[in-house]
Amino acid sequence: MAIFLLLVAAYLGLRPDTPTDPVSLGLCALGIALSVTEIRRPGIGFFSVSPALYMAAAELGHTRQAALAALAGVTLRTLVNGRRWREALYDAAAWLTPVAILASTPDAPAWLRAALALQGYLLAALWLSRGLAADLPPERAQACERSWAQLALPTVAVACLGIALGLAPPLGALCLLITLAILRLQATHFVLGTERQLWQQAESELGREQSRRVRVEDELHQAQDAHRVAVELGRTLGSCAGLQPTADALVRFVHARLERTSVVLFQGPEPIAYVSPRAEQLRDHTLLALGEPLVEEAARTGRVCRRSQSGSPLFPDEPEALAWPLGGFGALYVGGRQALSPAEGALLGLVAHQGGWALELACRLEQLEASGQQLARSNQRLGDWLAQLDPLVSGLRALSTQLDPETLLSELETQLQALVPHDFRVLQVDGETRAHPPDLTGWHELAQNMQEWGRPLLLEGENALVPGQRSLLAVPLTSGFLILGRTGDRPFRRQDQHLLDVLGYQVGLAMRNARLHSELALSYDDLRESQAQVVQSSKLAAVGQLAAGVAHELNTPLASALLSVQGAKLNLKRDPSLAPPKLELADQELRRAQEIVSNLLSYSRDSRGGHRPCVLQEVVRETLILLSGQTGSMQIASELPEPPLELICNPSEVKQVLLNLLLNARDAGATQLTLRAHGEAGEVVLEVADNGEGMTPEVLARAFDPFFTTRPVGKGTGLGLSVSSRLVEAHGGRLLCESQPGQGARFTLRLPR
User: Fold this and answer.
1) Which of 157, 278, 316, 423 is at 20 to 30 A from 454, Cα to Cα?
2) Is 586 helix (H, G, I), strand (E, B) or coil?
3) Which residues of 390-421 are buried (b: 16+ CB within 10 A; e: fewer)?
4) Which one, of 695, 747, 670, 724, lies nearest residue 541 by Cα?
5) Distance CA 357, CA 571 (A)
6) CA dist 709 to 24, 536, 653, 660, 699, Å?
7) Which of 180-194 are b and which e, b meaning 16 or more Cβ less than 10 Å from the residue's Cβ?
8) How would residue 690 be classed by pLDDT, with cut points 50, 70 and 90?
9) Nearest 5 degrees, angle CA 437-CA 439-CA 444?
10) Alpha helix (H) ranges present in 259-341?
């Protein structure tokens, strides 16, 4: 707005102006004088007749003097009527607008200049007045709009008179003064009316404000009363511990504040706290089949329910009653002969709201306390269980390591006394009964009943089945039963029963494992005996194959010894000095026969004598002696090293393995067989290679299977390689075979040193 005024003033100051004359100076001076006495329009500036004088001076061509006079008038009015510079700026803009329009159109027709100046002044006055009213409250702004509308016609008249005065100065001056006086009086009347309306509105607003203040004070007092009641109720209910004390305190609090005949708190359909002359009926309402429909309806709908007539089966003498719902807890019943006032209703609502929360909290606290107590009991039981589980686990570990049934039962009796102390005991497993003390009687019927039911029995008090016992615990086992008894004041617990259930199940498994272990041990002994018999049978079969060769080997030294003895007899008759050489030769031949028989007996006897230090070269040499004369056309080449290859073995079993390999090579049609040996890290390796017919992959895959043979029926047992492989594995070694059809076979025997 200030920038607009500066631009208008600069424009008017730069335009050329006509010389000053007394008429224009008089008009400007009169306008400045009248600006001091202008009428204020409340909130939107002033009603002024000065613009007419300024527009008349501008119409006469003195625009610069008119503009300066307008600014001077506004400044003087502002200084006199209060320094409201914002209104001064708006009025100055409205006054200078028509002056600027007249100054900018000097050559236009008079009627056009007048119309433009009039239109510019009205638009500027309207726009600037609304700009001032925009900062007022809505009601004040509407009143100012009505005031401006009422003063619109005088404002238009002022503008028109100013234009007319400029067009006809002599006649217009007189008309102007008369009309200005009339317009001022009319404007004063309008302004006073507007101020009266504004004053009435202000009084009305003041009355409403006082009414609101009274209501606010009443509400404040009610809020303070409610606060005091809430604090007192909270203090009363806060000192209660538990649901029932909280309910009783709530009922007594309501009864003391409302002074009604009955105050009853219902939890669902059950009255849990009450102050009423119908206390006996409330206590026995279930037996009497009495109920309160009002409470049931309030609890069902969740809304406050009222009754204004008698007829209740539980409270027949209370025509005025009210039931206030307490959420999901229940309802609060208040009844008497007088209805509740609004203040009492508000008080009851407050108490019901806070009391409902307190009751809910009390219920939850009781539930938490019950849960805490249950948790404590559970923790106690868990602690007792843990105290018994440690010895139970130790006892089960000790029982699981027992593989002898007798030892297992003895260990079970020891563990029972440690786990569940008792004064007498009857244990029956697999028909064997153990009683402590041994002369205990009267338990047979109890055992029979327990076995018929198939479930544990826990009996307390004097028991006729077992005289003198205060507590009995019977538990069935997999193949028997267990009965424990106590004579003291401490009875058995369910925990002891569960513990014995677990122990009984594990004892059944342990007894089954012990029996299976015993049976397995017997079966293993039988199997070892059978395997030894198979090995011995295989050995005897080989001896049978060697029998003919051994007989031939024995025949030669025996015949030589016989001839030597006969020659010695003849020499004794002719020349006794020639007899000793003959006898020496006979002794050598007989010793040779003895060695052959000794090797055969050593090989054929049972080889379960054990392991001992041996030299591999000696074992091979003795085996070749046994086989001498039995190889047929097969040539045996021994490429054994000179250093002795020592090992720990059963020489008879190693001989049997080597003999089986040599005989198999002979039967496979081999003509050449080579023996090689060497030592490796921790092992002695013996290779037996022949140039026989070899084996196909299918035969090689089954070469070590028991009773598998490629010979005709009656020519072989099929046990040679199977027994040999088992004997080598018993030494911790391996017997390997490599063979291809037509290229012979090579067996590698690896034995640990």
Assistant:
1) 423
2) helix
3) eebeebbeebeebbebeebbebbeebbeebbe
4) 724
5) 142
6) 157, 19, 21, 13, 9
7) beebbebbeebbeeb
8) very high
9) 100
10) 279-283, 285-288, 293-301
Q: Is the dihedral of CA 719, 723, 725, 726 positive or negative?
A: positive
User: What is the rounded distance in angstroms from the CA atom of residue 740 to the CA atom of residue 512?
Assistant: 51
Whether the full predicted model's pTM is greater than 0.70, yes or no, is no
Which residues are CB-neighbours of 108 under 8 A, at least 6 positions away?
A: 116
In angstroms, the CA 730 to CA 567 distance is: 53
CB atoms within 10 A of CB 172: 19
**Predicted pLDDT of residue 747:** 93
Amino acid at 33: A
Please give the structure tokens belonging to residue 88.
Answer: 């001064």
Neighbours of 312 (CB within 10 A): 21
Buried/exposed 338-351: b ≥16 CB within 10 Å, e otherwise: eebeeebbebbebb
Asked whether the predicted pLDDT for residue 677 surpasses 90, the reply is: yes
**Helices of type H across 239-291:** 243-258, 279-283, 285-288
Q: Which helix (H) or strand (E) holds 605?
A: none
Dump strand ranges (E) for 397-477: 424-429, 432-436, 457-460, 471-477
In 3D space, the residue among 365, 331, 346, 327 whose CA is nearest the CA of residue 238 turns out to be 365
569: CB partners within 8 A, 6+ apart: 579
